[in-house]
Design a protein that fits this description.
The chain has 245 residues and is mostly helical. It folds into two domains: 1-59 and 74-78; 80-191, Winged helix-like DNA-binding domain superfamily/Winged helix DNA-binding domain (Arc Repressor Mutant, subunit A). Helix content is 46%, strand content 10%. It contains nine helices and five strands. The protein has helices at 2-12, 16-32, 37-56, 82-94, 100-103, 108-124, 131-138, 142-154, 180-189, and strands at 158-163, 171-177, 221-223, 226-229, 232-235. The strands form two sheets. Strands 3-4-5 form a three-stranded antiparallel beta sheet, with no helix packed on it. A two-stranded antiparallel sheet has the order 1-2. A hairpin with a 2-residue loop joins strand 4 and strand 5 (232-235).
Amino acid sequence: MFHATMRGAIEDARTLAQMDALSRQVWQAHGAGAVDDDEAQHLAEQLHARRGAIRDGIVPVGIPARRPSLFPTRRAPVSPDRLASRDRRRHLAASGPMPPALAARFTTGQLAVLRIVGDEVAAKGVCGLCIDAIAARAGVCRRLAQAAIRLAASDGLLTIEERRHQGRKNSPNLIRVISREWQAWMRRTRRKPTDRQGQSQPASSGRGVGCRTIHPTDTGVLSSGKTEASGTVVELPARQSRTRP
């Protein structure tokens, strides 16, 4: 019901202020659980498309009518394969990115985002990916990725360090995991197999695998009727043919 109502409201919107208000309502409803990830993704794409159409109809002050804008029209960031994006975020969410007690607070799309963040933190100690890269890897839109990271930060699971620069483009934020439970989960799920002395085992080369000693096959047979053992050659008696009386 809410999804259909918001679709009609987006189509009837005529100003950018109305689009901003509708966008806030969509993401507030998503946080409250009124819409799921797929519906929020679809509404976000519709908002981007409708906002672009409204901007195309605005004539800048000082530019004659019917003159094209000096800036190219920004295309809405739509996934080229929505089914592949859906399968990717479901796979990431089902791979166990965090303990079950913490994972129960987030939706499927949010867990996929936190999986990407957790992998970067486990590999490099900090996640320095831009929000667009995180969203693309998780198979969600950038607004859902931002909402997931902010929700985790508000729960005290991670910190966000902004890197602003005056007069030029800001650098991507640095995200660090501060939850001890989440850190222990990442260490346990990424631990290498160890032997009894606590040292990591090398990759198997095909020898010494298992608990039994493997002996090679005896290749002492040289030809039919002769065998070789310990350097001596033994001739086998020829088989006598049986003839009928």
